[in-house]
Amino acid sequence: MSNKYRGLLLVVSSPSGAGKTTLCTRLRQEFAQLRFSVSYTTRPPRPGEVHGREYFFVDPADFTEMVARDEFAEYALVHGNNYGTSAALVNDALGSGVDLLFDIDFQGGRQLKAKFPGDVVLVFILPPSLSELERRLRSRNTDAPEVIDRRLRVARDELRHYQEYDYIIVNDDLTRAYDVLRSVYVSETFRCVRQRAAAEAVLSGQQVLNIGGRAVTGSEGA
Ligand code: ADP
Ligand code: 5GP
Predict the structure, then answer these.
(1) Looking at the domain assignment, is residue 3 inside a domain?
(2) Residue of minimum CA distance from atom 22 in ligand 2
(3) Residue closest by Cα to atom 13 of ligand 1
(4) Closest ligand to the CA of 135
(5) For residue 207, is it within any domain?
(6) I need a surface site. Which of 1, 8, 133, 150 has the fewest CB within 10 A?
(7) What is the pTM of this model?
(8) CA–CA distance from 201 to each of 2, 4, 7, 95, 197 (Å)?
């Protein structure tokens, strides 16, 4: 058995505009050990987006080659563009006890859950209403009107997939929604399947610390 904490794969999905980027950014700011999975996409960058930070922006031919080489843990067509998660990143994280955060859609969440059933936690962010979703998309001011219209048209279809998720968080008030997201994350890190190493370490005479919302064995904390 591994002598390390086993990382979790925290997937956060929602229709565009419900607030998942805002919530995920807060979570990453609070928990330094949570690493963001930077996806590959064929979508053009938005103003301010940086290659390698929000996404790896690739052209469709490169994306197709990556699919052929089996380099994605999951991939999907979303709003007319291709998006995919690096398989190497996921495998490395699981192998080294790192928690990974994913901002991916329900198709990606479903594929990851099928591949890593014990490691994936699926969180769905629900807007308080469809009209508030529209207001947020328009006031965010990042997409052309026809792009917003298309996102609103598919929002209902995305919402219908809520049943595939482990947790649903209504993002009406940002502070309240964040409190729930952080408690889901912290609680999930303490699942038995992830904390076996801590229990085994205590049994073998080592000291285990509870640091930053997660148990750390002496060898990890060093
Ligand atoms: P997503 O990543 O799901 O597309 P964003 O995080 O970009 O959504 O949020 C969409 C817009 O709504 C942003 O302008 C954001 O500041 C705003 N927003 C997020 N959460 C709330 C909230 N609880 N109340 C009001 N506005 C919010
Ligand atoms: P955006 O273009 O607004 O950044 O993202 C559009 C949608 O694509 C969002 O629902 C986002 O969660 C999803 N998405 C981003 N990266 C990936 C990915 O790697 N895989 C999948 N399946 N969806 C993704």
Answers:
(1) no
(2) 108
(3) 140
(4) 1
(5) yes
(6) 1
(7) 0.93
(8) 11, 9, 17, 18, 6
